[in-house]
Amino acid sequence: MSTPKTVSFYTLGCKLNFSETSSIGQSFKNKGFHVLPFEQGADIVVINTCTVTDMADKKNRKVIRRAREINPQSIVVVVGCYAQLKPEEIANMPEVDLVLGAGEKFRILHYIDNLSKADGKAQIFICEVEDIGSFQDSFSFGDRTRSFLKIQDGCDYSCTFCTIPKARGKSRSGTIEEVVNNAKNIAAKGMREIVLTGVNIGDFGNSTSVIDGNAPKEKHAFSQLIRSLDEVDGIERFRISSIEPNLLTEDIIEFISTSKRFVPHFHIPLQSGSDNILKAMKRRYLTALYRSRIDFIRKTIPHACIGVDVIVGFPGESEELFLVTFDFLNGLDISYLHVFSYSERQGTPAANMDEKVPPDVKKARHDILFNLSLKKQRLFYESHLGQTRTVLIEKSKNPELLTGFTDNYIKVSLPYKEGLRNQTVDFKLRSINEQYLVEGELI
Fold first, then answer.
1. I need a surface site. Which of 9, 108, 378, 381 has the fewest CB within 10 A?
2. Do 177 and 229 form a contact (C-beta atoms < 8 A)?
3. Do residues 431 and 385 make contact, with C-beta atoms less than 8 angstroms apart?
4. Which alpha helices (DSSP H) does 92-220 contain, by range?
5. What is the mean pLDDT of the segment spanning 303-308?
């Protein structure tokens, strides 16, 4: 068959996936392909998947089926974490033509010519995750306002609930020079904000190098990286995505407190407020360290936004231990929660643990912490009413409005005005509306 000339993409999951999809998309553009919206049914459809929960797997399969419904003649290619972990399951779907693993997805153009289904089954190209030794940098650029810049991939941790090391391999990263050059390229495209992304970004530079697998480790490399990025002209804001509490040092926090470009926003996974559960999860910290990080941020940057990941319903989480988590979170001066119900992942140690938590109990606990998050978020927003903060203006789904985030991640809404999008403005925070957006006026 001749090479098709249109391609579309669908990305599920994390910011890291979005950065990688953009880079894959650019490789198609460089070969003369035209990128179409997913719903227009391109000749090739690339679906970048997530597999962090059972719900994520269900969403993957739904999108795969939808791709075939839109255009029965499309070549459907599935990449991402789901593809690496469950290639046979995906290949058995009649809608799929090609499955590429973590080591193959950036070579997608190599595989798409002369595709044919053998016995009605998709072709699979998957290497062992242990063999993935190189780092592929990427950044997103579909949004005119911000870019997700991948600085690290993989993970050397062994949390008992997580499949990411099996899906993405060992921790690896580029060099400071490479990341800075990417940031300069992003600035040249007119984007104002960069979000640093990866699987475990605080581990940047502290693991096997990307080029030859033998380069020396850089001590405190992440701290060195953000200091170098702070000197990149053209980017008004750098935002750090999720960073492990044991890797978020006081040195990093103090730097951000005086940085020219790094914003006062931290997202720090906790997962449980119970030391017993943290030990069962094999996390690399206990609650005392976590609390010390929050207290130091509040002392150093009082106006910082602090987000927290937490999992409910992990095996062995009794009602008593859940209340320990609730009380711990309730007593922390944090700004919002991302709450996840534990989802059993095949092949993880946690899947074989006893004392499973029933689904209805997990849902009830999820709802309790979700409501706590709304309370924390409102208190954080209310503490800033009357203040003037900088806002990077973005488009809104409502054509009569614009939205944006303050430097410390308060989402605002304002009436549409021509020429404001992708501009940084001073905005006085006045009130919180029913959609939990802050309204006010330009200063």
1. 378
2. no
3. yes
4. 108-111, 164-168, 176-188
5. 98
pLDDT tens for residues 352-388?
999 999 999 999 999 999 999 999 999 999 999 999 9
Residues 6 or more apart whose CB falls under 8 angstroms from that of 89 comprise: none
pLDDT of 279 reads 98
Question: Distance between alpha carbon 161 and the CA centroid of its chain, in Å?
Answer: 18
| Residue 99 per-residue DSSP state | E
Q: How far apart are CA 348 and CA 160, in angstroms?
A: 6
Contact call for residues 238 and 196 (beta carbons, < 8 A): yes
Comparison of pLDDT for 137 and 70, the residue scoring more: 70
**CA–CA distance, 205 with 220 (Å, rounded to integer):** 8
Both tokens assigned to 42: 């391109």
SS3 347: coil
**Per-residue buried b or exposed e for 372-391, using 16+ beta carbons within 10 Å of the residue's own CB:** bbeebbeebbeebeeeebbb
Looking at the DSSP assignment, which residues form a beta bridge with residue 336?
307
CB 290 within 8 A of CB 268: yes
Closest CA to 255 of 231, 233, 236: 231
- Asked whether the CA dihedral 381, 387, 389, 392 is positive or negative, the reply is positive
Quote the CA–CA distance of 391 and 252 in Å, as a whole number. Answer: 24
SS3 382: helix
- 141, pLDDT greater than 90: no
Distance from C-alpha of 384 to C-alpha of 278, rounded to nearest angstrom: 33
Quote the strand ranges of 94-248, DSSP E.
98-100, 123-125, 138-139, 146-150, 152-153, 172-173, 193-197, 237-240
Burial of residue 355 (CB within 10 Å: 0-12, 13-18, 19+) is exposed
- pTM, two decimals, is 0.89
CA distances from 302 to 335, 386, 405 (A): 12, 16, 18
CB atoms under 10 Å from CB of 354, counted, come to 6
C-alpha distances (whole Å) from 289 to each of 266, 270, 283, 340 are: 16, 11, 12, 22
Q: Is 42 helix (H, G, I), strand (E, B) or coil?
A: coil
Confidence bin at 102 (pLDDT 50/70/90) = confident
Please name which of 21, 102, 143 lies closest in space to residue 403, comparing C-alpha atoms. 143
How high is the pLDDT of residue 4? 61
| Separation of alpha carbons 31 and 302, rounded Å | 49
Helices (H), 200-318: 221-229, 250-258, 275-281, 287-300
